[in-house]
C-alpha cells in the first residue's frame, strides 16, 4: 500500500552520512537521496515504528514553506523517516549558540513569523500540533524556521479525549489533566506568567500575554497572531533608518 502511495523510498538510492542528532526513539543522520540533502530518522523498535507511521501519515498531507517536509519512508531493520535536511539544527540550539549579532530582534521576529505561518497552515487544516516548542522547530540553511515533530498532532475533534503525555510547561492549562509537575500547573492556573525577556519590546510582550490568556477564546488564532506580528515587523523595519 505504501509503495503505491508513492511515499515508500528506494533504500539503494540513499547515501547515509553523519549522525546529527538523537531523538527519543533513535538517531538522526544526514544523508543524500537522489542528489538531495536529507535527514533520516531511524526508529528500531517495531511498536514505536507503528506510532511513527501515524506521524508520517499526517505529514504526507501537509506542504508548507514553514513545515519540515517529508520525502517519504523506508522499511529496513525498522522504520526510516526521510525529511528535508535542516542544516542549522533545532531552534533552541540555534538561539543558544549564536550571538546577539545573529539573533537580533529582527531575526527573532522573523522566526516567530515563520513558526506562526506554519501553525496558521496547520490551523487551516483543523490540526493541532500539541508539542510546539523551540526544540521542535528546525532552522534551514537559509535560516527559515520550520515546525517539525508531528508525533502528537491530532485532528481537533479527537484531541480532547486523548491522554497522551503532554509537555507540561508549554501546554495550555485546560489541557493539563494529570497531576505531573503539580507545582507548575498550580502556578499557571493560579495566574503566574513569565516576565518579559530582556530587551523584549512591550508590544511583543503584550502579544505573548495574549497567547497565555487563561480563557482559551481570548487567545488569538494563528491567523490573527500573524497579522499582529507582521504589523510589528513592519514597524521595526520601517523605523530602522530614522
Ligand atoms: P521525537 O519525539 O520524534 O523522538 P525528538 O524531539 O526527540 O523527536 P527528533 O525529532 O528525533 O527528536 O530530532 C532530534 C534532533 O535531531 C533534533 O533536535 C535536531 O537537532 C536533529 N534533527 C531532526 N530532524 C532534523 C532535520 N530534518 N534536519 C536536521 N536536523 C534534524
UniProtKB/TrEMBL annotation:
<keyword id="KW-0963">Cytoplasm</keyword>
<feature type="region of interest" description="Disordered">
    <location>
        <begin position="223"/>
        <end position="242"/>
    </location>
</feature>
<keyword id="KW-0727">SH2 domain</keyword>
<comment type="similarity">
    <text>Belongs to the protein kinase superfamily. Tyr protein kinase family.</text>
</comment>
<feature type="domain" description="Protein kinase">
    <location>
        <begin position="14"/>
        <end position="242"/>
    </location>
</feature>
<protein>
    <recommendedName>
        <fullName>Tyrosine-protein kinase</fullName>
        <ecNumber>2.7.10.2</ecNumber>
    </recommendedName>
</protein>
<dbReference type="GO" id="GO:0004715">
    <property type="term" value="F:non-membrane spanning protein tyrosine kinase activity"/>
</dbReference>
<keyword id="KW-0728">SH3 domain</keyword>
<feature type="compositionally biased region" description="Basic and acidic residues">
    <location>
        <begin position="223"/>
        <end position="238"/>
    </location>
</feature>
<keyword id="KW-0519">Myristate</keyword>
<keyword id="KW-0418">Kinase</keyword>
<keyword id="KW-0547">Nucleotide-binding</keyword>
<keyword id="KW-0808">Transferase</keyword>
<keyword id="KW-0829">Tyrosine-protein kinase</keyword>
<feature type="binding site">
    <location>
        <position position="41"/>
    </location>
    <ligand>
        <name>ATP</name>
    </ligand>
</feature>
<dbReference type="GO" id="GO:0005737">
    <property type="term" value="C:cytoplasm"/>
</dbReference>
<dbReference type="GO" id="GO:0005524">
    <property type="term" value="F:ATP binding"/>
</dbReference>
<keyword id="KW-0449">Lipoprotein</keyword>
<keyword id="KW-0067">ATP-binding</keyword>
Amino acid at each position: 500500500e505504501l509503495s503505491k502511495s508513492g511515499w515508500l523510498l528506494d533504500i539503494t538510492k540513499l547515501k547515509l552520512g553523519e549522525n546529527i542528532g538523537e531523538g527519543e526513539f533513535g538517531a538522526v543522520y544526514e544523508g543524500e537521496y537522489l542528489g538531495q540533502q536529507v535527514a533520516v530518522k531511524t526508529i528500531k523498535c517495531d511498536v514505536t515504528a507503528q506510532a511513527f507511521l501515524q506521524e508520517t501519515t499526517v505529514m504526507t498531507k501537509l506542504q508548507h514553506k514553514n513545515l519540515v517536509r517529508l520525502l517519504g519512508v523506508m522499511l529496513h531493520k525498522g522504520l526510516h523517516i526521510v525529511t528535508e535536511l535542516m542544516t542549522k539544527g533545532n531552534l533552541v540550539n540555534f538561539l543558544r549558540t549564536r550571538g546577539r549579532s545573529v539573533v537580533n530582534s529582527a531575526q527573532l521576529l522573523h522566526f516567530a513569523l515563520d513558526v506562526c505561518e506554519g501553525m496558521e497552515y496547520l490551523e487551516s487544516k483543523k490540526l493541532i500540533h500539541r508539542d510546539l516548542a523551540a526544540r521542535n522547530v528546525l532552522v534551514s540553511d537559509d535560516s527559515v524556521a520550520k515546525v517539525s515533530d508531528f508525533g502528537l498532532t491530532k485532528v481537533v475533534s479527537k484531541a480532547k479525549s486523548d491522554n497522551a503525555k503532554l509537555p507540561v510547561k508549554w501546554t495550555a492549562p485546560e489541557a493539563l489533566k494529570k497531576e505531573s509537575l503539580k507545582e507548575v500547573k498550580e502556578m499557571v492556573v493560579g495566574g503566574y506568567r513569565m516576565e518579559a525577556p530582556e530587551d523584549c519590546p512591550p508590544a511583543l510582550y503584550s502579544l505573548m500575554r495574549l497567547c497565555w490568556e487563561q480563557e482559551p477564546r481570548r487567545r488569538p488564532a494563528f491567523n490573527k497572531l500573524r497579522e499582529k506580528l507582521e504589523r510589528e515587523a513592519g514597524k521595526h523595519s520601517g523605523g530602522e533608518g530614522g
